[in-house]
UniProtKB/TrEMBL annotation:
InterPro entries, A to Z: Cro/C1-type_HTH, Lambda_DNA-bd_dom_sf, TPR-like_helical_dom_sf
Domain HTH cro/C1-type intervals: 1-46
CDD domains xrefs: HTH_XRE
Short name of one Pfam family: HTH_3
GO MF annotation terms: DNA binding
Stated name of the protein: Helix-turn-helix protein
UniProt-listed SUPFAM superfamilies: lambda repressor-like DNA-binding domains, TPR-like
């Protein structure tokens, strides 16, 4: 708009009282203007008629194309990064491109960049409801990844009351499912995820349908509805093999099926699913842990110990190190009466997972601890943890 009106940076600076270098940095998205400065720009450049501006409409059209590709999980982020202009003619055009950039940053897990954009957008008002809803949806996901679940939940509850388009509503409900699952609100998670699944089926959004069914299976697993969980995981595999998706995603489903069978204590089937996962090039540390546990339960102690040794060469987080230490002690113990040291290890691992609010993992490690206490005949301590198990099972 400045160029269209034949104004140089210095001329615009003189008319508005804003430093010309600051204006230039604002034009390329490297600086912000305060409310007074924006009003001065509006006055000189007549930007209040932005809704009729061609550049603004072009920005909206590009955003709509971009958003559909995001929803259908076919987006080429590099392509859209290069489509975002460095110079913006109007404030609202700038906001559209900022929301695009924000969603890209979410996809790239660039939290610092997201926070900077949130700070800029908070100074203005996004007038386009579709773009505003998309922005708030992904702000909810940013809050979720930063473990600010309650704040994210408020955003999504508000979005569900708004008049969103069907494609947008599907992705909003899908994202909300992650939050409910993390908060252990399993019934609420199932409600929004089953609704999202229907929308993805109606709109032939197969990649999102794959992800949604995988999340539904995970919720069913957390609820200990193993039959339903297995059904959805197998449905995921059947669908995933027809789609152009990362093989690691298929491997992840097989790995989850292996975990499901471990929880059911069907160890031969758990091993079979783990072998299927490995065929897809899966080298995740959880696969190693599952394989160690399966071999331990099948009394293949030497094989389990070899896997533990190999796993120690990988740089692991504290949780994994604690589990490896416990599994190693269990393998050396075999079927003998446990020592107080091993029981202390089991308590430490259980306490660690209990703090994460992951009920399924907590129950798994609690069962290990209870088994050790029963073998030790440590009845006083056993009663305490049996009561703990009752509390967890009620959740």
């Amino acid at each position: 708009m400045r160029v269209a009106k034949g104004l140089s940076l210095r001329a615009l600076a003189k008319l508005t009282g804003i430093n010309y270098q600051h204006i230039r940095r604002f034009e390329i998205g490297e600086a912000d203007l305060n409310e007074y400065q924006l009003k001065q720009l509006d006055k000189v450049l007549d930007l209040n008629n932005y809704n009729n501006d061609v550049s603004y409409q072009q920005a909206i059209e590009l955003f709509e194309k971009f958003y559909i590709e995001v929803v259908y999980d076919t987006v080429d982020l590099a392509y859209y990064k290069h489509r975002i202009p460095e110079v913006y003619i109007t404030i609202n055009e700038h906001l559209v491109y900022l929301v695009m950039k924000y969603i890209i940053y979410i996809q790239e897990n660039y939290v610092e960049g997201c926070l900077k954009i949130e700070n800029i957008i908070s100074q203005y008002e996004i007038s386009n409801l579709f773009i505003y809803s998309a922005y708030m949806d992904y702000m909810g996901m940013r809050l979720f990844t930063c473990d600010q679940h309650e704040e994210a939940l408020k955003i999504y509850k508000s979005l569900l009351k708004s008049n969103c388009e069907k494609t947008e509503l599907g992705i909003i409900k899908y994202h909300l499912g992650f939050i409910y699952k993390d908060l252990n609100y399993f019934n609420e998670a199932m409600e929004v995820l089953l609704s999202a699944k229907e929308i993805f089926m109606d709109t032939a959004n197969l990649k999102r349908l794959f992800g949604c069914m995988m999340l539904i299976a995970s919720v069913e697993l957390r609820k200990r509805n193993y039959k339903n969980a297995e059904y959805y995981y197998i449905s995921c595999i059947n669908l995933g093999k027809t789609l152009d998706i990362d093989k690691n995603e298929i491997a992840k489903v097989y790995r989850n099926l292996s975990w499901l069978m471990i929880r059911k204590k069907v160890y031969d089937k758990a091993q079979k699913y783990l072998e299927e996962a490995n065929e897809f090039g899966n080298t995740h540390i959880l696969s190693r842990l599952y394989n160690i546990w399966i071999n331990y339960k099948l009394e293949n102690y030497s094989e389990a110990l070899r896997d533990i040794t190999k796993s120690r060469y990988i740089k692991n987080e504290q949780r994994i190190v604690l589990v490896l230490d416990l599994f190693e002690s269990l393998c050396y113990l075999e079927n003998k009466i446990p020592s107080n040291k091993i029981i202390s290890q089991a308590i430490k691992v259980y306490d660690f997972h209990r703090k994460t609010n992951d009920i399924d993992l907590s129950l798994f490690y609690l069962d290990i601890l209870i088994n050790l206490l029963e073998r030790k005949k440590a009845n006083d301590c056993l009663i305490i943890y049996l009561k703990e198990k009752i509390i967890l099972l009620e959740n």
